[in-house]
Amino acid sequence: MSDILSYDELEQKLRQATIPVTAAELHGFLTGLICGGASEQKWPIFMNEFTNNGEAYPTALLKEVSALYHDIQHSLEDIDSFNFQLFLPENGDLFNEIDALSEWTSHFLLGLGLVQAKMDKETGEIGEALDDLQNIAVLAYEEDDDPEELAESLEQVAEYVRTLVAVLYAHYRPYQATQKTVLH
Asked: Could you tell me the pTM of the whole model?
């Protein structure tokens, strides 16, 4: 896990490479691809197409993003530990953090939708989860809202999104969510 870039490091590298997404957007997108079941061969193609206008990532950055992708994948596969975390800034700017959660969620839905093209037909618990995520993707706040209430709401909504990601992963990837690796 120590070879994974921090949020700020990834943000800086994306800007240096002139890739037009934030670290939160990229993490959400990759998580959506994983939850939807994108193959090992397809996820980089989707990533280039939808996060960098069809252009390949620089080799060094691709290596780091690939490590992030596999870290996300491993944390989702270990459903019992529930170690998956959203990749959001923690810079003390509450409004920036709220915007990042909204952007993360929007890009998660984009990644998921690319792989699960019929997700708009989902009903029941899964349909509700997707509807909730769509609402979170367009979160709004007023600049004069109480910061303490906003911070508490942000924490609750982020935890809810994290839970919904686990639910959707288990729904779209039931084998991977329950598979245990046995080391001999």
From this structure: 0.91
